[in-house]
Structure formats: C-alpha cells, structure tokens
Amino acid sequence: MMGHSVDKEKKEGYLIFRFILIILGCWAAGYFVGRGAAHIPDDYLKLPQRILENGTRFFPFVFAGYNIILALSCFILNYRAKKRLTEWDGVDEDVLDSVDHKLNYPIFLANIAMIMNMFSFPLAIEMTESPVFENGEQEIFMAAVMVILFLGFVWITAVQYTVLKLTRRMNPEKRGSVFQLNFHKIWESSCDEAEKMAMYQAGFRAFKTVSNTCMVLWIVTLTMQLLFQTGIFPVLCVCIIFLAGNISYFVAAMKNESANRR
C-alpha cells in the first residue's frame, strides 16, 4: 500500500516535470520566432497579398465550382438513400440503419460547404481592394459573389430539408423543421435515450476538438500579429470562441450534476 502511494507520487512528479519542460519549450520557441520575425524580408511578408491579387479574377469560378460539386454530391447521395428506402420491404431493419447512416454524408458535406461559403464571402470583400480591377469591375465581382452565396445557402437548406424529410419518414416520432429557430431543441426532445447519449458523446468530443483548435489558433493568430501586424482582433475572436465554449460546457455540466442529485 505504501509502495503504491510512493510510485504514484513519483509518477505525478514526473508528469509535473514533463509539463514544466513543455511550457519552457513553448516559451523558448515563441521567443525565437518573435525575434526572427523582425528579420524576415518585406517581400515574404507581402506574399499573402500577392496570392490574393493573382487569384482574384478566378475566385468567382472557384466559388461557384466547389458549390456545384458539393451540391451535386449531396443530391446524388440523397437520391440513392431515398431509392434504397423506397425498395425497403418493411421488415429488414438493417436497411433502415444503412439509409440512416448514408444520410450523414450529405449533411456533413452541406455543413462543410456552409462554412466554406462563410469564409469565401469576406475573402471576396478583401479581394475587392486588388489593383487588378478596373472601373466598375468591383461591383460586377461582388454581385457575382453575392449571387453564388445566396444560391449556396438555398441548396444547403434544400439538402437539410430533404435529409430531414427522409429521416422523419423512417422515424415518424421525430419532430422539428429546419425552418424553426429552435429546431435542434425540438429534435433532441424527440430522440430516444440511445440517440441522446450518442449526441452527448459527440458533443463532448466536439468540445475537446474546439478547445484544442482554439489553442492552436491562438498561437497562429499571435504569430500573425507579430509577423503581419494583423492586430489584436483575430486573437480576441479566438479567445471569445474559447471562452464561450468553456462557459457553455461547464454551465451545462453543473446544471446536470445538480439535476442528478435531486
């Protein structure tokens, strides 16, 4: 018993020592990166701006292109899932599980497209400052981008609607519409315990992923502030997301603990 306690203390001491070494290593790396940033030639610092300028004229085609590819992929996946459900004999439950699994892919691709579109729009605004534009071309460029953005949200909503319709066809007890502001809350309330447990486990994994991502982004935005004088705002945005995620998680965790004690 005593030996076990001593081994446990030694292991904890090793973990603390390793943690301190990691912190010191990160501090040293940050110090030398910051010192080296002052000696980077201006030509390298202007490289991102040059890339934006050279890609400006092709951007609407790239923006429309990936939306078309992702939209076609989603609707094809939805069609295959619907066809498989139509051929169902009403007995084999494995078919329902297979269709339910296949419907995850169009939703996943639609969410990826939405995030890409949300990034592409401010990127297009940044590109309007490019000197490659002549008189009046900025307006045409932004008009094309806004049309593509609008159509992108239309097809993404259509995919979500068709997936939800197929899911409710397989599970009539499910409630909620993608056009409701509190859709996720209504949908969650109509799920059984097993589905809720899967959602909560996925939510906890997402919380850990976002926390780790925020730590990496904090380092990146801090480095960008030193190298490209991007200011404090990008770092502030990362910290706000990090803070909001942690507050939301711990408030929900404490609320659930209090409910379980009653």
Largest sheet: none
Order of helices and strands: HHHHHHHHHH
Radius of gyration: 25 Å
Shape: flat
CATH top level assignment of the largest domain: Mainly Alpha
Number of DSSP helices?
10
CATH architecture assignment of the largest domain: Orthogonal Bundle
Assembly level:
single chain
Number of domains: 3
Fraction in beta strands: under 5%
| Class from secondary-structure proportions | mainly alpha
Description:
- It is a single chain.
- The chain has 262 residues and is mostly helical.
- The chain folds into three domains: 1-38; 45-180, Topoisomerase I, Chain A, domain 4 (Orthogonal Bundle); 192-262.
- 83% of the residues lie in helices and 0% in strands.
- The chain is built from ten helices and no strands.
- The chain has helices spanning 2-37, 42-45, 47-55, 59-86, 93-102, 104-127, 137-170, 183-189, 193-228, 233-261.
